[in-house]
Amino acid sequence: MSSPLAIASVTRVLKDLLNNRVIDHNISDVVGNVKVTSLPPDFIPTGTSTEVSQLNLFMYMVTQNLGWRNQGFPSHNSSGDRISNPPLALDLHYLLTAYGSEELHHEILLGYGMQLFHEVPVLTKDSIRTALAPSTTVTAGTLPPELQNLSTSGLADQVEQIKITPETLNTEELSRLWTAFGAKYRPNAAYRATVVLIESTKSTKSALPVRERLIYTKPFHQPVIQKISSKTTLTGPILENQKIISGDYLILNGIQLKGEIVSILIGDLEIIQSNLISLSDEQITFQIPDTVPAGIHGVQVVHSIPIGLGSPPIAHKGVSSNVHAFVLSPNITSISFINSTNLNGFFSGTIEVTVAPEVGIDQRIVLLLNELNPTPGTIAQAYSFEMLGIAISSPPAPNTIIPIPINNVQEGTYLVRLQIDGAESPLQTDASMFYNSPTIDIS
To answer: Are the CB atoms for 293 and 360 separated by under 8 Å?
Structure first.
């Protein structure tokens, strides 16, 4: 590939070819001394007394090459290391213009220049090296000092040869060009040099070659969770529509649940296959870990595929089931009323609730009190007390004992419920199916 000097190098090679054509065909015998330049048109003096016989090759525009533009941009890996140096592919657009103070000199010079580009449609590697060699003599002098480093551009070594093709510009395009040049119009012909490939020499990070390719073709089944139920003991009955508490056994029913390697996801918590109690295509049973907080959770079945040469192979994620939601309710294990104060039969203080699982510091807690046996003829009292965020320990950590301040609660016995992130603790019933616990005496 070429360096950024390639653009100037192409112009230099074309100018050298035009110089050789002037010398080889003795054009100076016809039109006198001839100059070959690569200047902007407004830099060239014109007029009857100042204009000389001259061929000027001016690069007026650079465009991206359409055939190479899909190579992309320099890319980096996740660590920010450069991993590729795709080339910058350019087309160079030239205007070959003839100047002369005598009649027909313009046409003669332009004819020789156009004949050259017709006969030399491709810049060969040898012609490029010859034109860019530091010791090359193109006129009476040598290569200017500021252009000595063009020999290092690498133009002759790029993978694409540079082709010279004529372009057709209509009168409107020519008029706009010469107006932009701010110069007097002279006979000209347009050409395109394609393609110049400029590539960075920055170091890239290359991965090691692949020693052995492993291709795995395995059929897979899409697991689908259709229903979630639970039971309180491993040998107990499966009960539907009951509150699920920490330590219960969760039963997933569905289709194609069994796979080669199966795991269960509850939020970010993964339950591996060895911790599953039962596994079949239609049902999976496992115990809810005590680290799952109360609240609404999504559960998902994940099938992994063992891939690799090691023993055992590494499990890679394959397919996952739909996400099915369930509510894990907090379970109250003990209640106490402390620091009570009495003001005209209305009590304030703190209710300490021991609950499982642990309550996180950012979970929303609501205590619900409902009077159990109101005095006949009176309306049963009900209260709610909300708190957000608890920080009993330092640093803050999840807790099982939750102190909840209450105030202005009428004396009596109350059923107690606890809501954590919308999940409500269960109430127990007696033989007549009336709620009877857990309770707290406010007195």
So the answer is: yes
| Residues 120/17, Cβ–Cβ less than 8 Å | yes
Q: Model's pTM, two decimal places?
A: 0.52
d(CA 55, CA 110): 7
Angle at the Cα of 245 (from 240 to 249), degrees rounded to 5?
Answer: 65
Contact 228, 234 (CB under 8 A): no
User: Helix 105-119 and helix 6-24: axis angle, to 10°?
Assistant: 120
How buried is 340 (Cβ within 10 angstroms: 0-12 exposed, 13-18 middle, 19+ buried)?
A: middle
Q: Indicate the residue type of 368.
A: L
Alpha-carbon span 51 to 49, nearest angstrom: 6
Give the H or E element holding residue 10: helix 6-24
By the 8 A CB rule, do 41 and 97 touch? yes
Number of Cβ within 10 Å of residue 90's Cβ equals 21
Sign of CA dihedral 352, 357, 358, 362: negative
Average pLDDT by consecutive 10-residue portion of the chain (443 residues)?
A: 86 92 80 89 86 92 87 72 81 95 89 92 90 61 62 85 94 94 94 90 77 75 92 87 90 93 92 93 94 92 81 79 93 92 91 90 90 88 82 67 91 93 91 91 90
Backbone angles phi, psi at 232, to 5 degrees: -80, -30
At residue 107, the 3 state secondary structure works out as helix
- Quote the CA–CA distance of 401 and 395 in Å, as a whole number: 16
**Phi first, then psi: what are they for 167, rounded to 5°?**
-120, 150
**Cβ neighbours of residue 197 under 8 Å, at least 6 residues apart?**
1, 2, 6, 68, 87, 88, 89, 90, 158, 159, 160
Cα–Cα separations (whole angstroms), residue 399 to 359, 361, 391, 420: 5, 8, 9, 13
Q: Which residues pair with 304 in a beta bridge?
A: 261, 317
Beta strands in 209-320 (DSSP E): 224-231, 244-245, 249-255, 261-266, 269-271, 278-279, 283-287, 295-307, 314-320
Nearest to 361 by CA among 398, 330, 392: 398
Mark out the alpha helices in 50-104 (DSSP H runs): none
State yes or no: cis peptide before 159, omega within 30 of 0: no
Q: What is the DSSP letter of 411?
A: S
Query: What's the rounded Cα separation, in Å, for the pair 115 and 117?
Result: 6
